[in-house]
Amino acid sequence: MRKIFSALTFLAITALPHVSLANINKPLLPMITATNNPATNIKSTLSFSENEALIERLSTHTIWQNAKLIILDNPTRLSTHTIWQRLLLYKNGKSGVLSDSFFVSPQGKTDAKAELLANLQALQSAKTAEDYLCRFPARSAWLMAEVPSLAENVDALLGFHECQQVNDWLSKINATQLSLIYAEEHVNRMASAFGHTLIRVDNPQSLATHDTDLAYFINFATDNSQHSSPLSSAFDAVRGHGKGAMTFGNYTDKQANYLIKDERDIWQYTLKLSNADIRQMMRHFWEVKDVARHYNFLSNNCASEILRLLDIVSPQDNFVNDTGKIISPAEVSRILAKKGVLANEQFIPSRHTLEQAKHNDNTNNRNVVQQSDIDNYAKNAQFTKLPNLIPNDNNPLNATRLHRANLSVLHSDARDKLKFLLGVRGGYQDLLDNPTGKRDFLNLTTLSVQLSHDADKTFNRGSQLQIHDATLLDITMFNPENGTTPKATLGGHLKITPIVDGSYQQTNEHRVLSVGGEYGSSWLIGKGKAGSGELPNTLCYGLAMGQGQIGRINNGFRIGVGVHTGCVHHLTPKLRVLADAQLPYWFHELDGSGGNDDNERNHYFQPIVSLTGQYDIGKQTAVRAGVSHQRNHEQNDINYLLSYHWFFD
């Protein structure tokens, strides 16, 4: 199903600025100034006369012969030319790099063989070889491993076959361990509402001292430098036309942005890589650090970049393709764990989590967290000396899958109709979904659609499925007043939804486009798990709301204001219940379309209350049941819902 499902809001990732280290004399990413021939001027006449069979083997995946797919050579040889395609960032026969300077051949963006010939040609001349080595250290290292005579030829030309400037940088960084970093969802920032992934780079000193100030990070995110506002940058990223930027810098500063500023827990996993793999990944980062690429919230984002970098040194795998068309940050850790690439899982609590843990322990006098731990949080986090808490239940390895399909039955008393619903939700999480692996009390639905069919029309020849509802975005950002960081609770939606026009006595159901916002407060009830930073199991809220609707209703539109209250309670780890009440007051302009309806009205209350529960059957399946009561014109409308949910990537 994931192959045919291609919509999700996405993933929006916060782009943080480049950070340089004051304690390093040279820049972390020095500019190439080795010779007077910049790499951007390396061009080839494609006169290299290497064996044609070798060129085919290195530059292409497969060939077609007699309408049958023929694999060239054995799997090992196949993996080698697969790496060449990956080094060029090829997908579907075209590179994802926008910068011309990334290619030696003018046809390099779409012709891997021409690019290979041009690269080999550049290494045959003393005028271009040094520039090539410094601009493309990963490519040259791979080519020389595949064609050992190349290293001998370049040595004869230059007296060396590796760029000294690149080697100096690699020695300065001295990367000996790479780790996958996952920062949980940001409740108040849409661009980071799905979490974020990046790579931590450690050396022997940072590993021995546990000092994050000696470590670095590699990150891929939206580049906001070319936009007048973050909103325009986010819009371009949603459309798939955003600009992505690689950043590299001090890990302490990066970590502090998540743990302190954004109050987001971090999960860290060591990547099982050899020293040779780490060195090649760092070389490749050098190659792509300055090139322009598109950024897409759905597929070409922080998550896909982690997998792509690993694909550079994993010819036997294809991590990017394993994810399907949509790639989320949490999905990266699950894929790599399944492939056996992750080790040494570590939970790093945010300052917010430490404050919550101290609050949770007050009644039990366990004192796992002292006030000094919170006051000295930044320094303790830098030296990895945070209190040993029970990890929060937000490990992405344990999360339910990103997408959800549902099969539901809906019955309306007022219209005496039974409907079957079939739906797919792009993401992400609502108040009744299993919270394991995600931030507590998330309410974010994106790109969701449900089709409906009336049961009494099942055997009618002219009957067909129709859209029951469709959601572009429905979000509530809860910031409890009695939490560790009290703020306003905000919400909003943009969706197509079924409604009953309360200005008429008749109770016909119509679809409208609804846009609305909410503002108010929320509160936690009870205590979280002692020894942990988990939130209590009950959240209540009270919000003022305003919305407008356009569609087949009286005079084509209505506007409303009102209140929205409710509570969600986690009865058990598998069972959650939500009680919700809305009291909107609607205003219409009458158009007389009610006919002889003398009771037609242009303003009215239309209260609705509901009680819904969800029980998790298994890891990726659940059932949901609920009842709602709505007061329309002079009639009550009671709806009963029974739904089966299946979660998938």
Overall mean pLDDT: 84
Note the quaternary state here: single chain
Largest sheet, spatial ordering of strands: 12-13-14-15-16-17-18-19-20-22-23-24
Q: Class by helix and strand content?
A: alpha+beta
The backbone outline, from C-alpha atoms, is globular
Total of DSSP H or I helical runs spanning 4+ residues: 16
Q: Which residues form runs of ≥5 with pLDDT under 50?
A: 1-27, 31-40, 43-50, 61-80, 458-462
How far is the first residue's CA from the last residue's CA? 9 Å
Radius of gyration: 29 Å
Give the % helix. Answer: 10-25%
Number of strands: 24
Major sheet summary line:
12 strands, antiparallel, barrel
Query: How big a fraction of the residues is strand?
Result: 25-35%
Short description:
The protein is an alpha+beta fold and 649 residues long. The chain contains 16 helices and 24 strands.
Task: Record the SSE blueprint.
Layout (H helix, E strand, L loop, with lengths): L51 H8 L2 E4 L2 E4 L3 H13 L2 E2 L2 E2 L16 H11 L3 H10 L1 H10 L1 H11 L5 H10 L3 E7 L12 E7 L1 H6 L6 E7 L7 H10 L2 E9 H11 L4 E6 L3 H14 L4 E3 L6 H10 L17 H10 L3 E7 L2 H11 L9 H5 L1 H6 L20 E10 L4 E13 L13 E12 L11 E12 L11 E12 L8 E17 L12 E14 L5 E16 L2 E13 L15 E3 L2 E9 L4 E11 L4 E13 L1
Antiparallel strand pairs: 1-2, 3-4, 5-6, 5-9, 6-7, 7-8, 8-10, 9-11, 12-13, 12-24, 13-14, 14-15, 15-16, 16-17, 17-18, 18-19, 19-20, 20-21, 20-22, 22-23, 23-24
Helix pairs in contact: 1-2, 1-3, 5-6, 5-11, 12-13
